[in-house]
Structures are given as C-alpha cells and as structure tokens.
Amino acid sequence: MASNVDKEYPIPNINTILHKNNRGRLPVVQVGVNGKVVHVLLDTGAGISYLPISKINLKDLDPTYQLQAHAANGTPILFHGIVKLALRMGNRVFEHTLHVSDDKDCPTEMLLGTDFMKKAFMK
C-alpha cells in the first residue's frame, strides 16, 4: 500500500546522524515567540517541551505544575512550573504549554519534544 511520505513524515530535512568522525548538526529551527526569534532544538527523544527560566516573564509562570525528569544522560532536571506560549513556525501559530527549567538544564533557548511534534505535525 503506497503512502504519501510528505503527509506521513511532516518535518522534512531535519535529520541528524551522529558519528565519531562527523558530529552532524542538531535539528535547530527558528520560532517566533512574543515578537522575537528563538532558536529551538527539536528533540525526538524528549517527551516534554521546555525552556530556561531566563526566557520567560516570571509573572506568566504557573508553579502548580512542578515536576522532576531526567535527561538522556540521567541528570535530574527540576521544573519550576509551566508557561503557555504562542509559537510561530512559518505562517502557522501553535499554542503550547512548556515546562520551565533552570538555565543550566536547557541546552538551547527552547527545546520542543514529542508532545509538541504530535500536536503540531500529526493529524
């Protein structure tokens, strides 16, 4: 049964294969947030999306949803709460809830996990 690859895999050209001789490039995209451009890591290994606390307005933080998770290397990450943001990708805008971490625990300005990818790209 033939399928339409573009519909089945809606994130074209974001492929990374790491090798000891060629580290490759991480899948980082630019996303508009509150009128600013933010560099965002698309992480298919992360089940949740998050950003560092320095990237939000503290009055927007909802601290009732604190949780602890672990990075791929086993390092614990404490989340201080959640924030709801409108993310602009191209001509589309997605409302999404992101967890908020300490600055040291987020490798980029924002990390979007599979929770966002399922919502944004899977229909």
Automatic annotation (TrEMBL):
<protein>
    <submittedName>
        <fullName>Peptidase A2 domain-containing protein</fullName>
    </submittedName>
</protein>
<dbReference type="InterPro" id="IPR021109">
    <property type="entry name" value="Peptidase_aspartic_dom_sf"/>
</dbReference>
<dbReference type="Pfam" id="PF13975">
    <property type="entry name" value="gag-asp_proteas"/>
</dbReference>
